[in-house]
Amino acid sequence: MRHEGNLNSLRNWEKAGHPRDNELRIIIPASLGAVRRGLENIKTGLAPFGFSADELSSLEIVLAEALNNIVEHAYTEADNGLIEVSLTQIPCGLACTIIDNGKMMPGGEPPLGLQANLDCDRADLPEGGFGWFLIRELAHELDYQHIDGQNKLSFRLAIGEMS
C-alpha cells in the first residue's frame, strides 16, 4: 500500500469515534490524484445505502468541487495535508462534513458562486468559476467555519431521503 499524507497530523483533529451503520468516513491526502481515488472509494462505500446513479452523481459533483478547491487553494504550499470527509444518512438526505487544516477561505466565507454569464461567444466563456455555483445549487444548509486553524464545511444533499 502506498503511503500518502502525514497521518501524524490526525492527532490534532477532533476525536470522531467509531462510524455508525448510517455513516461513512474517509481521510484523503490533499492531492488531486488522491481526491479522485477518494471519490471512487466513497461511491463504493455508499453502495449499501442504495442511492440511485443520479443521486451519486450529484454527490460526486459537490464533493469533487469542494475537495479539489481544498487541494488547489487551502493546501497550496503544504504537501502533506489531509482532508476528512464524513457522510451520514439522515431522514432528510445525506449530511456531509469536510474538515481540513489548510488556509481559511478568503473573507472567512465560501464564495457566493454566482452563475456565470453564458450569453457570449464560446471563446469568451469563463474558464472556471462554476464550482461554487454547482455546490450552492445542489447543497442545502451550507455552513463554513474556521476554528483553531481548522476548516469545516457542512451541508446536506437531498438524496436518499428516508420515508
From TrEMBL:
<keyword id="KW-0418">Kinase</keyword>
<keyword id="KW-0808">Transferase</keyword>
<dbReference type="InterPro" id="IPR036890">
    <property type="entry name" value="HATPase_C_sf"/>
</dbReference>
<dbReference type="Pfam" id="PF13581">
    <property type="entry name" value="HATPase_c_2"/>
</dbReference>
<keyword id="KW-0723">Serine/threonine-protein kinase</keyword>
<protein>
    <submittedName>
        <fullName>Serine/threonine-protein kinase RsbW</fullName>
    </submittedName>
</protein>
<dbReference type="InterPro" id="IPR003594">
    <property type="entry name" value="HATPase_dom"/>
</dbReference>
<feature type="domain" description="Histidine kinase/HSP90-like ATPase">
    <location>
        <begin position="29"/>
        <end position="156"/>
    </location>
</feature>
<dbReference type="InterPro" id="IPR050267">
    <property type="entry name" value="Anti-sigma-factor_SerPK"/>
</dbReference>
<dbReference type="GO" id="GO:0004674">
    <property type="term" value="F:protein serine/threonine kinase activity"/>
</dbReference>
